[in-house]
């Protein structure tokens, strides 16, 4: 059918997949970090304190003290490719290009910072994507991660007259594909160590304990992931939670305290991994690999190893590709 004169070009109909991760400052300077933290810590999903009480604390104290310290931490892990989280998420997207044929476009975005979720949804729409799978890369569901990423996408969709059809990637904390990918990479990484660990720590990102009381399933998802991985490995794991912030009581035990306690209890050789992160970032490369090691060794530990996330390595890419393929069923022809 011929188009009327002067009708805009109509792109070929496609399906879009948007990989979404937490976010990162544009560079490791205090100014950029301050801008990033202002957006992150103003999210009502992240800090569930009424803005009238929280914003004076955030603007008057935190954003005038924390950026310099956080910038120093970012500087220790920044690379030529930029932020590790952004670089790895980009690599995950690039590794998946073409995996589902020419009719599927893969893109990536950050919940906080750049590239923004709204901008990448628009890019997908311009490429003819009338159906989009939103894929938050958080294995365990949490309102402060999975939900807020989806919220940001929905907020942009609410402004559109012509919305694409939308699906969201469910949490995959107990998915056999995910558990197998974790166990496989852990076996490989443990085999490369020059020592046999006395303990293996599974460190998940912490959340205030109040979130569990309010019904957030995150803590349960983390515990199940750890249990299934331990069963797959055939050896126990020590579960801990990192990245505490503020005076509230957080999920425990705390990772930093756990490392110290292990060393003092005679567990002098430890390996640690972060199964709640799909890509290495500040919380893994600086908080665990650098500060975690320092705490452990100061308490008497002799051997410490941080084992990387799945990242954009073949095993992780294959797992992610297969999980996404399952969620695209009915939108694309089976391979």
Write the layout of secondary structure elements.
Blueprint: E1 14-24, H1 30-40, H2 51-77, H3 84-96, E2 104-113, H4 117-126, E3 129-136, H5 143-157, E4 165-168, H6 176-192, E5 199-205, H7 209-213, H8 218-233, E6 238-242, H9 255-264, E7 269-273, H10 282-285, H11 287-298, E8 303-307, H12 314-327
Parallel strand pairs: 1-2, 1-3, 3-4, 5-6, 5-7, 7-8
Helix pairs in contact: 1-2, 6-8, 6-12, 9-11
Structural class by SSE content: alpha/beta
What is the tally of beta strands?
A: 8
Give the helix tally: 12
Strand residue content: 15-25%
Mean pLDDT: 95
**Secondary-structure element pattern, one letter each:** EHHHEHEHEHEHHEHEHHEH
Spatially, the strands of the biggest sheet line up as 2-1-3-4
Low-confidence stretches: none
Rounded to the nearest angstrom, the radius of gyration is: 21 Å
Provide key terms for this protein.
335 residues, four-stranded parallel beta sheet, 12 helices, 16% strand, globular
